[in-house]
Amino acid sequence: MTDQNDDQANSKASNERDSSLRILRKYTNRRLYDTSRSCYVTLDDVKQLVLSGEAFKVEDSKTGNDLTRNILLQIISEQEALGHGTLLTNQVLQQLIRFYGDSMQGMMSQYLEQSIASFLEHQDRIRDQMQTMMGAANPLTMMNRIADQNMQMWGMFKPGENPEGTVDDDPDTKNKP
């Protein structure tokens, strides 16, 4: 009796997960249909789903086969072709191809996933460090720092001013015991 209850609970949980999963169907005319919104979508729309973190799956309309990876690879290919700077250089792609069929393929896949997850976790800190480094290398920032230091140095040499930066009213009192 408990096995049947467990199966029902698992089935219910699976259905709840599936209901939050957005299903896109790819038809033979190469168009993608969003079943939750009842409209056709473009690759740019799918890219927006990825950027917003929404869970989705792309299925072949006839066979039901999962085509999500194919669509994601197509989006990556288009992004790479736009020339905004590539993530996947020829050298990286060639090295990845060499891993297919290799005994290390599974480990490489896990390594890439973990590396990207780690990078994403630390992305804000990395961005802050890069901005700090860029700020330090910025000529205007450096000139402002030098100017501030020069002003402090000039302040120390002003006549009638002591090292604390306060003005002595009577310079003769310095020499008296």
Overview of this protein structure:
With 177 residues, the protein is α+β, with helices and mostly antiparallel strands. It has helices at residues 2-20, 43-52, 68-81, 90-99, 105-121, 123-137, 139-156; strands spanning 22-26, 32-34, 39-41, 56-60. The chain has a four-stranded mixed sheet with strand order 3-2-1-4.
Instruction: Report how far apart the termini are.
Output: 102 Å
Structural class: alpha+beta
Number of helices: 7
Overall pLDDT metric = 79
Output the helix-strand order: HEEEHEHHHHH
Rg result: 32 Å
**Secondary structure tally: strands:** 4
Poorly predicted runs of 5 or more residues: 1-17
Helix coverage percent? 55-70%
How much of the sequence is in beta strands?
Answer: 5-15%
Give the strand order of the largest sheet, numbering strands 1, 2, ... along the chain: 3-2-1-4
Question: Given the C-alpha coordinates, what overall shape results?
Answer: elongated
- Biggest beta sheet attributes: 4 strands, mixed
Q: Concise description?
A:
The chain has 177 residues and is of the alpha+beta class. It has a domain at 1-87. It has helices spanning 2-20, 43-52, 68-81, 90-99, 105-121, 123-137, 139-156; strands at 22-26, 32-34, 39-41, 56-60.
